[in-house]
Specification:
With 216 residues, the chain is an alpha+beta fold. It contains 5 helices and 9 strands, in the order αααββββββααβββ. The strands form 2 sheets. Strands 2-1-9-8-7-6-3 form a 7-stranded mixed sheet, sandwiched between helices. A two-stranded antiparallel sheet has the order 4-5. The N and C termini lie far apart (74 Å).
Length: 216
């Protein structure tokens, strides 16, 4: 009889633990995909600070300052175009002396634009021009970034490149719920990246080196 009670207690403990884990996973997934509402000055100040700090670090080619804004567990995704199709890699840090890809250096350029929160500009391949120039973060509630997800699906369908569940979860953590930033003070210069909040702190999660490249 005692043995039956022990077995019942063990089974109940395992069941409750499983339920708690599922609840935590569901909660984590919800937190991952939902964008933070920039509905007060404090939140806007926090995201603005990380955006401007990364731009300064990028422009000064300062590895330490840039990598301080990359999440130590999630890393950063770098999108690039090695040929006709986009691809990406996830790394734990940036090294401005070793660009990804190697043939495309991290170049600096002057900037006197002030960050604004509004709809992003678009690059028009037929004219090789942007629809507007400046320094922008898209904070609209309907904006959703799916750069990595789109690349992964395309690579799976056309190149038979399979992404395992671990990588799918990683790119979801990096992209879903992020804000896209475009700095393009002039037609020939631009910097595009994403920022996202994890546990109350903001990090740079994606560097897009492919957008604005219309070469086929």
């Amino acid at each position: 009889m005692i043995r039956k009670y022990i077995l019942f207690f063990v089974a109940l403990t395992l069941f409750l633990g499983s339920c708690n884990n599922k609840q935590k996973q569901a909660s984590g997934a919800t937190d991952t995909v939902t964008r933070v509402a920039l509905d007060n000055p404090e939140k806007i100040q926090q995201i603005s600070e990380v955006i401007t700090r990364f731009v300064r670090a990028y422009q000064s080619q300062d590895n330490g300052k840039a990598n301080a804004l990359i999440h130590p567990d999630h890393g950063i995704a770098i999108v690039y175009r090695p040929g006709a199709m986009d691809n990406f890699t996830v790394v734990d840090s940036l090294d401005f002396s070793k660009p990804v890809p190697e043939s495309y250096p991290y170049t600096t350029f002057p900037n006197d634009k002030v960050l604004t929160f509004e709809a992003l500009p678009e690059f028009q391949c037929d004219t090789d021009k942007w629809t507007k120039l400046g320094f922008f973060c898209d904070s609209t509630s309907t904006s959703k970034t799916n750069v990595l997800e789109t690349i992964a699906k395309f690579q799976d369908e056309y190149n038979e490149v399979k992404f395992d569940d671990t990588m799918k979860a990683q790119i979801s953590n990096l992209e879903n719920g992020s804000f896209r930033v475009i700095l393009n003070p002039a037609e020939e210069h631009f910097l595009i990246f994403h920022v996202k909040q994890f546990d109350g702190a903001w990090y740079v999660t994606l560097l897009d080196r492919s957008y604005g490249n219309c070469d086929a």
